[in-house]
Specification:
Layout lengths: L1 E5 L4 E6 L2 E6 L2 E5 L6 E13 L4 E14 L2 E5 L3 E4 L2 H46 L5
Parallel strand pairs: 1-7
Antiparallel strand pairs: 1-2, 3-4, 3-5, 5-6, 6-7, 6-8
Length: 135
């Protein structure tokens, strides 16, 4: 099987592998040769794969995984390859999770600002409608 992990800016991994383990919202799963076509959304997690004699790891910040015809493709926003699973698990995944949390906070704050603007517009429209300004 051929594995490729890509981000918007770079090709992180492009190599031949024997098996792969990943995680989506339903939990952990594995992919072996001759796997059926498959598509899933990955969680913030660590993807591991085995080649000839080595097991390798890559922390991914979500993304999409597809399996088609012996090829496994992962498209993600961020990916960090490493051989030390403990370091990837503690440092990189914690940073990915913190970044995702910060994005959620920013999104909520943006929505609150938009709602405040809409409320002001509606209140101005309501007071202007009584005075006959919109004729």
């Amino acid at each position: 099987m051929r594995l490729s992990i890509v981000t918007p800016l770079d090709i992180i991994v492009d190599e031949t592998i024997h098996s792969l383990r990943a995680e989506d919202a339903s939990g952990s799963f594995g992919i072996l040769p001759y796997h059926a076509p498959f598509l899933t959304a990955l969680a913030i997690s660590i993807v591991s794969w085995r080649s000839e004699t080595v097991e390798r790891f890559c922390a991914v910040r979500g993304g999409a995984l597809t399996v088609t015809g012996g090829n496994i493709a992962i498209a993600t926003r961020e990916a960090v390859v490493g051989d030390d699973l403990a370091k990837l698990d503690t440092e990189v995944l914690a940073q990915f999770q913190a970044d995702a949390d910060a994005e959620r906070v920013e999104h909520v704050e943006t929505l609150q600002l938009q709602m405040n603007v809409i409320r002001r517009m509606v209140s101005q429209l309501s007071t202007g409608a009584d005075a006959g300004k919109f004729r």
